[in-house]
Specification:
Blueprint (H helix, E strand, L loop, with lengths): L1 H14 L47 H6 L4 H11 L12 H16 L11 E5 L9 E9 L10 E7 L26 H20 L7 E7 L7 H9 L8
Parallel strand pairs: 3-4
Antiparallel strand pairs: 1-2, 2-4
Helix pairs in contact: 3-5
Length: 246
Amino acid sequence: MIWKLLCLTLFFYACGSESRSVRSFSGADLNSGDQNAEENPAGGENTPPPSTEPLPPDSDVDPLTAGLAMIQIQKLKDELTFIASDSFEGRLAATNGNAEVADYIIDELEALEIAPPPGRDYRQVFKVKNGPMSGEETANIIGVLPGNDPILKNEYVVIGAHMDHAGTLNLGFTCSNGTSGANLICNGADDNGSGTVSVLNVARALAKVRHKLKRTVVVMWFSAEEEGLEGSYYYVDKDPVFNLDK
């Protein structure tokens, strides 16, 4: 039911014909805790789930039905298990674990034929300002599904979540890892592994029905959220890829 409401909302804005004032979406955590593998799907082997092959458009199928068919519960579970595994050591911005998850997202976008912004890379690189990785580079990830309406394609629906988490306890951040200190890794299954895979699976659904999109849909994964919303601030204040008025 939640997925149906989400997809109905997205199709209303992305596929509707009326011009509307600017709206913004941000992928929020499904829960507020920092659960580890024993509390959420995490801590599994560092083996990515198989990629979802893009399917040809179905012109005679209802777009909501076709899009929802691309969202599979087991795929969500497997992907969350992978992203929140110990192998990525909590995905702290500017660490190898964070960069490897970004690589996985980009691989999936390429498989779905979701391109980066025109003339750009998928990675929007910036330097972390705060925390233990201050001064080091990290990146937001941006993919674009162009709209098909000659006028409305210049309006943008942004679907986003942050992909980073707090890393490990010995770096100075705190998290509830549920293991009485035996495990120093902040897996971040719900903060924000769940948001990360949700945006990716919404992207899969929309890629299936891209021929029905009137507005352009932008999928984004922000980094350095834990240091103070740095990735989203960088996009808005320093390098807005698309006109913010749109």
